[in-house]
């Protein structure tokens, strides 16, 4: 029984760590490059999940639902940046209020359109697989693999492509990047779309083995904030490590103590990091001077 619980615990830590990484990387990209704390980022998960729900209802196709989750969330992020944030970037307080209000608006729109009940999203891959004597759904294994494929692709994109290098250059110095012909607004647009796509897919993945609800993005947003502070605001590598640290502590707390304490460990670690090492474990890789 102990071995079975250990396998379940390890599985949940690995899977949720990968999903939290997707959400936190988008959150930290927008902050690291543009200096924006996007409080609507959690609600973007629900846009992805409910876009998938709508497409599954209309077509019954899970692959099309995945495309809709990514496209719906990415297009929303693009429109939000181009329509509001771009004009308010110089006022951090106004941006903070706008993102907070937008997150609440999204939740209410989803609530009106789909109702407050939890909705099931079909598994991305049917069947089960046996690992260490424990049967795991293929969907969870598939979601874990896809999440790491996306994380690896993002690392390659940022570090090996010209657009990725432009994102890094802009995060270090907008003026310096402009001197070598990099247009900051275009880079900000890329980061918002990228963050939206990652959040939308994370929403679909999460809903595929749990459910979709209008408030499903709140806990991931709270955990993402803790993760990026722990890892270092603007640090992609720190976000991944922070996501696994938070996932491990949260799952150990929920499994061994009480499910009512979900998320508490993240807040405790957040407070400790702010007191001991406020710049986070890895500082800022994406930094604006």
Question: Can you walk through the features of this model?
Answer:
This protein has helices at about 1-35, 40-60, 60-90, 90-115, 140-160, 160-170, 175-180, 185-210, 220-230, 235-255, 265-275; strands spanning about 130, 135. With about 290 residues, the protein is mainly α. The chain has a two-stranded antiparallel sheet. β1 and β2 form a beta hairpin.
Task: Output the radius of gyration.
Answer: 19 Å
Order of helices and strands: HHHHEEHHHHHHH
Within the largest sheet, what's the order of strands? 1-2
Distance between the termini: 53 Å
Count the DSSP helices.
11
Please state the average pLDDT score: 88
Report on the biggest sheet: 2 strands, antiparallel
Label the overall shape: globular
Work out the strand percent.
Answer: under 5%
Low-pLDDT stretches: none
Query: Percent range for helical residues?
Result: over 70%
Secondary structure tally: strands: 2
Structural class: mainly alpha
Subcellular location: Cell membrane
InterPro entries: ABC_transp_permease, BCAA_transport_permease
Membrane topology: Multi-pass membrane protein
Family: Belongs to the binding-protein-dependent transport system permease family. LivHM subfamily.
């Amino acid at each position: 029984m102990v071995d079975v619980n250990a396998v379940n615990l390890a599985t949940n830590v690995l899977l949720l760590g990968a999903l939290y990484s997707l959400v936190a990387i988008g959150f930290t990209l927008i902050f690291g490059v543009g200096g924006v704390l996007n409080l609507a980022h959690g609600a973007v998960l629900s846009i992805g999940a409910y876009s998938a729900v709508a497409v599954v209802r209309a077509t019954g196709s899970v692959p099309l639902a995945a495309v809709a989750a990514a496209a719906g969330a990415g297009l929303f992020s693009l429109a939000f940046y181009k329509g509001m944030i771009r004009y308010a970037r110089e006022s951090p307080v106004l941006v903070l209020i706008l993102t907070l209000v937008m997150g609440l608006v999204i939740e209410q729109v989803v609530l009106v359109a789909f109702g407050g009940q939890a909705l099931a999203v079909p598994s991305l891959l049917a069947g089960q697989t046996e690992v260490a004597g424990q049967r795991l759904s293929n969907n969870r294994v598939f979601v874990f693999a896809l999440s790491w494929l996306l994380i690896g692709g993002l690392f390659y994109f940022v570090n090996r492509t010209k657009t990725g290098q432009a994102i890094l250059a802009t995060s270090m110095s907008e003026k310096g990047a402009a001197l070598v012909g990099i247009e900051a607004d275009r880079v900000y647009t890329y980061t918002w779309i990228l963050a939206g796509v990652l959040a939308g897919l994370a929403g679909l993945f999460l809903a595929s083995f749990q459910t979709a609800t209008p408030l499903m993005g709140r806990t991931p947003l709270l955990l993402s904030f803790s993760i990026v502070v722990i890892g270092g605001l603007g640090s992609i590598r720190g976000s991944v490590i922070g996501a696994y640290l938070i996932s491990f502590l949260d799952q150990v707390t929920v499994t061994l103590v009480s499910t009512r304490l979900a998320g508490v460990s993240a807040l405790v670690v957040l407070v400790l990091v702010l007191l001991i090492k406020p710049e986070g474990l890895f500082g800022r890789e994406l930094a604006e001077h």
